[in-house]
Amino acid sequence: MIAMQTNFTSLNVSWGAALSALLLVTGCHQAPSETPEAAAAPPPVTVTSQVVELTSHVTTEDVVGTVEPKLRATLEAKVSGRITELPVELGQKVKKGDLIAALSVEEIQAKLNQAEAMREQAARDRDRYRRLLAQEAVTQAEFDAVEARARVAEAAVKEAQTMLDYARVRAPFDGVITRKFAEVGDLATPGRPLVGLENTARYRLVADVPETLANRVRVGASLRVTVPALHRELGGIVAELAPAADVGSRTFRAKIDLPPTPGLRSGQFGRAAVPVSDGQALFVPASAVSQRGQLQMVFVVTNQVLQMRLVKTGRRRDGRVEILSGLNPGERVVTREVRQLRDGQPVRDGAGA
Fold first, then answer.
1. Strand partners, 332
2. What is the SS3 assignment for 124?
3. When comparing pLDDT for 319 and 147, which is higher?
4. Is residue 285 within 8 Å of residue 48, measured between CB atoms?
5. Which tens digits make up the pLDDT trace of 317-326?
6. N or C: which end of the chain has fewer CB within 10 A?
């Protein structure tokens, strides 16, 4: 009985080993399944490309500045008085001569009334003495004295009238109200600002040029100006350049006139490119550069296959981007519709010529 059980156990072990071997052989001869990468192979694509070459360009260094209006003013009152009218608000457009503020100046009005009364009396005295002089009842000297008093009275009226006009502050030019320093009921005094006014027709970039670049900036020279808020370059003309450097910063103040440009506003940040030397650089169309997160890349056609290249870009000019690294002269880059392309994607014959 024991012998039969031993043989049965041995038989079970033999069948188990045989079955395992059979499954192993079957698994070895099974055809491998298709990988996801092979199933998702990108199809061939037709692209537009061009060969990049070194081009001559001027090496520049940027100086930073602030956009300011060419014409601006802080309006103040020339006389003291309580503000009774201030019919302007921030951002309001005004014309030259428009009322900005009116002051209550009763004492000046009283002086004007007094001066007008004295002028009337002096005019009557002059007419009376003129008749007496014709009758030889007074001397010429007496008449001259009366006439002088009449002229003094006339001047007093003009002086009082001028002082009264100072109580109505008016816009000296067309512009926009940019700041308000007072409100109705405040006391206006000479030297205390009321409002800020800027003319929005023309702007300029005010920049401080380091002394190492000052000899490369000339009045009347053209400079490229970039205003990041506008995402564009402007052509500026150097209108003013300080003849002496600031002793603290060792910089020269330059004022660069800008052309009329929509969206340009006072206080915006800007850069002016000061030419330093001539050189060569690689430029590609801006449409050739793809931005993915913090990475910038281009696609190069190599042996009819697209190769993705990470690049470092520099200056942008006239719709082109400077390539500082990642690309070599003579290589062919895709210039249009690069966002849908993939690394390793084949290119059809004749594409990108």
1. 51
2. helix
3. 147
4. no
5. 778 888 888 8
6. N
pTM for the whole structure: 0.60
Tell me which CATH homologous superfamily contains domain 106-166: Helix hairpin bin (1.10.287.470)
Binned at pLDDT 50, 70 and 90, residue 98 comes out as: very high
Class of domain 77-102+169-201: mainly beta
Nearest to 256 by CA among 269, 272, 239, 243: 239
Residues 6+ apart with CB under 8 A from 306: 45, 47, 299, 300, 334, 341, 342, 343, 344, 345, 346, 347
**Average confidence score pLDDT of the chain:** 84
Question: For 106-130, what is the mean pLDDT?
Answer: 92
Nearest to 319, CA basis, from 284, 273, 277, 267: 284
Residue 237 · residue 259 · CB < 8 Å: no
In whole angstroms, give the CA distance from residue 282 to residue 276.
Answer: 18
CB 279 within 8 A of CB 56: yes
**Domain covering 62-70+202-276: architecture:** Beta Barrel (2.40)
Query: Is 106-166 the same fold as 62-70+202-276?
Result: no
Counting residues of the chain whose pLDDT is more than 70, the rounded percentage is 87
